[in-house]
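R.M. (postdoc): so does anyone remember the format we settled on? I'll just put the structure tokens first.
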């Protein structure tokens, strides 16, 4: 009983240290337009990051993201508010496809909103990124 308590305490402490020390490295990707007129981006969803986490796409051209979950157990999702619409999809091991056509330029944040009680959210651990829509 006591041993379990200390293990839980250690786990919480390790999580806090991880959250504080975790330095987010920016991985930029500039999408190119495929022959069929779609700008496709492959995104890796790991624990706790998106790779790439800074994606540049063009406005008014269909975009397709294929997001693949790397972790076996830890669930992750993809949340993005763009064009005044909220996109929220769970990410599978096989890959989740997200399609939209950005209509306005600017920077839009995407993230994973998963969170265990008492622990920092995945977003707080670094699982977020920016989509920059350019002309
Ligand atoms: Cu997550």
């Amino acid at each position: 009983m006591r041993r379990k308590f200390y293990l839980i305490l250690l786990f919480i402490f390790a999580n806090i240290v991880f959250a504080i020390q975790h330095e987010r490295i920016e991985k930029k990707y500039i999408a190119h337009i495929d022959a069929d007129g779609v700008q496709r981006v492959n995104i890796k969803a790991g624990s706790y990051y998106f790779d790439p986490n800074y994606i540049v796409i063009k406005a008014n051209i269909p975009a397709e993201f294929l997001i693949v979950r790397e972790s076996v157990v830890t669930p992750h999702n993809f949340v993005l508010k763009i064009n005044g619409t909220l996109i929220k999809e769970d990410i599978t091991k096989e890959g989740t496809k997200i399609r939209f056509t950005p209509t306005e330029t600017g920077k839009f944040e995407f993230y994973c909103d998963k969170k265990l009680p008492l622990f920092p959210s995945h977003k707080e651990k670094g699982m977020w990124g920016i989509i920059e829509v350019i002309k």
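R.M.: ...and that's the designed sequence above, right after the tokens. Also worth knowing: Helices lie at 2-21. Strands lie at 28-30, 39-46, 49-51, 54-58, 63-69, 77-82, 85-90, 96-100, 106-111, 128-134.
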